From TrEMBL:
Main location: secreted
GO-annotated biological processes: cell wall modification
GO function terms (MF aspect): enzyme inhibitor activity; pectinesterase activity
Protein name (database record): pectinesterase
Catalysed reactions listed for this entry: [(1->4)-alpha-D-galacturonosyl methyl ester](n) + n H2O = [(1->4)-alpha-D-galacturonosyl](n) + n methanol + n H(+)
SMART domains found in the cross-reference section: PMEI
InterPro entries hit by this protein: Invertase/methylesterase_inhib, Pectin_lyas_fold, Pectin_lyase_fold/virulence, Pectinesterase_cat, Pectinesterase_inhib_dom
């Protein structure tokens, strides 16, 4: 399936509650101006192609099988976008795109948090393959002051494990009592955060009500309403998971909640022109601090259980701390996982004459899927160009898209960065269109296999939660793999491509820009057995003037950025320093950039920057599929 977003198209997945459900994608290509957005938690999203490559498959520099292409090859000034957006995506000039999308198509504002929120979800191309139950958890409420007194010593010991112990102790003492066990303190901390989160949602609603004549401010408010609702879902799920000892899930979901809260704060930052917005940002500061504290406690609870005496503030690899590793499965752990091949078709979408036995649009097929279905609903998309925005609502589970192959099944749409839009919403390439996002994922437990993502700046936005990319081809030049997810890339081909403007003059390119904002977040980018090279055109340019073309494995988008390359082959285009700073010494003492057994002409570590690291062999297992994203629990075995 070729998923092009060309003109007005955008695709996004917004699914899931715990436990996970599987989504699958096969035979997909996203060319020219493509955008895929996977949104919502606790699902397995599997994107893969089992369709033989067509003659339209682009030339590549190795034999890696690619039959799913996600790309944003647009003419200048065009791109694709999403419905709603976050604002904090990296840009070439180290600035953030301040404005979310406007909602000119809607005459009425979103409902306030007290109403039943619609679950925004779009599907770019996705096949879904396994069903799990959905759990709806109410937002926890703080206990009343009438409860029995708690132990101040226990609270203080638990709060010492956070980054903001004074705020932690004050909040727990003020809002809760009758806390006699570590788990009760942890869940109370989540409850307090959720209470403030509800207040923040109401503030965002007031901002929207007062800003209908201001496109940028109303867009920021819509961002907040959307992401704070997502944060609420994640926190409720985390609170429900902890008593069942699903500690890794709870940490992943709290990590995502913190991402979304920061997204709201960042959106408001660029439209802070009123007292109401200033008050809301102050409230968001407190919310982020409280959520960070709950996240820190969840890490200690996962590591040390009820022994509060061992709890401590979050440490990172730079402090000499690695979590226990399990490297079962070899390179990346779980190399045999994949997507089922024998998927029975439930609905067909066709541009041709099918005698009334098929749908003419993908959206019609999606709407035909049962709500909260426990079985796969497989949609076969026949060859053709489909110009539409496809939305898979929250209640549509296990929807599977099957295309006819790269270059054959095409979904198109286009938007560009500008007032009312951010990188998060767009898929654009070119000097006038700014950043190019070809694919965005906010889906927990996502599997993307044998897919291709093509763009320039900001090609692949792995925004949040746990994701697995296997045997994919990812192409771009500036920060083209970015976000704050916990993502493992296994056996992938990473390619630098020339800039659109005066490429012969040289440039500095960064493959990754990870955005971890808190040391307790269980997020980072892990590359296992991947190859970093240039496209044929870029390599030709590089060899003419190698000194003016500088390429790096990554740079720190946020303070606790974490990226490791393990057993990867680095071609000559990778510059000797290996990594580049973002701005001055920002994050250089807090990031973790590591390598292990890098190979190839660019793999020599003798010239690496002093603030990068070599991963100790005994700790490599900490980045296995199982250890880093619990892959053995949700990545299915391939039968193809």
């Amino acid at each position: 399936m070729t998923t092009k977003v060309d003109g007005k198209n955008l695709h996004e997945i917004n699914d899931g509650h715990p436990p996970p459900l599987i989504r699958t994608l096969r035979g997909c290509e996203t060319q020219a101006r493509a955008w895929c957005d996977l949104r919502h938690p606790l699902q397995v999203m599997v994107i893969r192609s089992a369709i033989p490559q067509s003659s339209a498959t682009p030339t590549r520099t190795d034999s890696t099988p690619v039959s799913c292409l996600v790309s944003s090859k647009t003419s200048p000034g065009h791109g694709i976008g999403l419905s709603s957006d976050w604002t904090n995506t990296p840009t070439q000039d180290n600035q953030k795109n301040p404005y979310p999308p406007s909602s000119s198509s809607s005459s009425s504002p979103w409902p306030p948090p007290s109403s039943s929120p619609s679950s925004p979800s779009l599907l770019f191309f996705s096949l879904s393959s396994a069903a799990h139950r959905r759990h709806h958890q109410p937002t926890p409420k703080p206990p009343t002051a009438a409860a029995a007194a708690t132990s101040p010593q226990l609270i203080q010991s638990a709060c010492n494990a956070t980054r903001f112990p004074a705020a932690c102790a004050s909040a727990l003492t003020q809002y809760t009592t009758n806390l006699s066990a570590p788990l009760e303190i942890l869940t109370a901390s989540i409850s307090i955060s959720s209470h403030i989160l509800t207040a923040a949602q109401l503030k965002a609603w007031k901002i929207l009500e007062s800003s209908l004549d201001n496109r940028n401010r109303s867009s920021a408010a819509r961002i907040c309403l959307e992401v704070l609702q997502n944060a609420n879902l994640r926190q409720s799920a985390a609170a429900a998971a902890l008593p069942r000892r699903r500690n890794k899930d709870a940490r992943a979901w709290l990590s995502a909640s913190l991402v979304y809260q920061y997204d709201c704060w960042s959106a408001l930052k660029y439209v802070n022109d009123s007292q109401l917005i200033n008050e809301t940002m102050t409230l968001m500061d407190s919310l982020i601090m409280l959520t960070s504290n709950a996240l820190s406690m969840s890490q200690s609870y996962d590591l040390f259980g009820d022994n509060v005496g061992l709890w401590r503030a979050p440490l990172t690899e730079r402090d000499g701390f690695w979590e226990d590793g399990n490297s079962d499965g070899g390179g990346g752990g779980g190399g045999g996982g994949g997507v089922p091949a024998d998927l029975a078709v439930d609905a067909t979408v066709s541009k041709g004459d099918c005698g009334g036995r098929c749908y003419k649009t993908l959206q019609e097929a999606v709407e035909a899927a049962p709500d909260n279905g426990e079985k796969r609903f497989v949609v076969r998309i026949e060859e053709g160009v489909y110009e539409e925005i496809v939305r898979v609502p929250y209640e549509k589970k296990n929807v599977v898209f099957l295309g006819d192959g790269m270059g054959k099944t095409v979904i198109t749409g286009s938007l560009k960065v500008g007032p009312g839009l951010t990188t998060y919403n767009t898929s654009t390439v070119g000097p006038d269109a700014h950043q190019a996002v070809a694919f965005r994922s906010d889906s927990d437990l996502s599997i993307i296999e044998n897919c291709e993502f093509l763009g320039n700046q900001d090609t692949l936005y792995a925004h949040s939660l746990r994701q697995f990319y296997k045997s994919c081809r990812i192409e771009g030049n500036v920060d083209f793999i970015f976000g704050n997810s916990a993502a493992v890339f296994q056996d992938c081909l990473i390619l630098i491509r020339p800039r659109d403007v005066a490429p012969e003059k040289g440039e500095s390119n960064a493959v990754t820009a990870h955005g971890r904002i808190d040391p307790a977040q269980s997020t980072g980018f892990v590359f296992w057995n991947c190859t970093v090279n240039g496209t044929d055109k870029y390599v030709a340019l590089y060899r003419k003037k190698p000194k003016v073309h500088r390429n790096y494995l990554g740079r720190p988008w946020k303070e606790y950025s974490r990226t490791v390359f393990l057993g990867c082959y680095l071609e000559e285009i990778v510059s000797a320093p290996g990594w580049m700073p973002w701005s001055g010494d920002f994050a250089l003492s807090t990031l973790y950039y590591g390598e292990f057994e890098s190979r190839g002409p660019g793999g020599s570590v003798s010239g690496r920057v002093g603030w990068s690291s070599q991963v100790p062999k005994e700790h490599v297992g900490a980045y296995s599929l199982q250890s880093f994203i619990q892959g053995n629990d949700w990545i299915p075995n391939s039968n193809s």
